[in-house]
Amino acid sequence: MKALLALLTLAxxxxxxxxxxVTGTWKAEFDTQIGVQKYTFTLKQDGKTVTGKANSIIxxxxxxxxxxxxxxxxxxxxxxELLNFQGSDLRISYRGKVSxxxxxxxxxxxxxxx
Length: 114
Known about the structure:
By secondary structure, the protein is mostly beta strands. The protein is 14% helix and 68% strand. It has 1 helix and 7 strands, in the order αβββββββ. It has one helix at residues 2-17; strands at residues 24-32, 35-46, 49-58, 61-73, 76-85, 88-99, 102-112. A 7-stranded antiparallel β-sheet has the order 1-2-3-4-5-6-7, with no helix packed on it. A hairpin with a 2-residue loop joins β5 and β6 (88-99).
């Protein structure tokens, strides 16, 4: 039983080591109701925690916002952008799949922060 537990612990440790490293700068574009939005995400990973900022171009405006609730699980990264857009506080959730030197991002939802 102890050998099995040791083996499972070692396997879990190796799987954690296989998590993608997302530290760096990543670009994405989203076609939304208000037009194409171009993003540059600057991410920093510390273990399974991801922090960073987002710089975006929405129409003629440029925005910078912080990222929260960031985490990495295997090859999937997720975080929330806390964006103030035209006086409204918005909370936008993102999920991305790491594939080589690319992350394919999708927006999960858009709502007002409470």
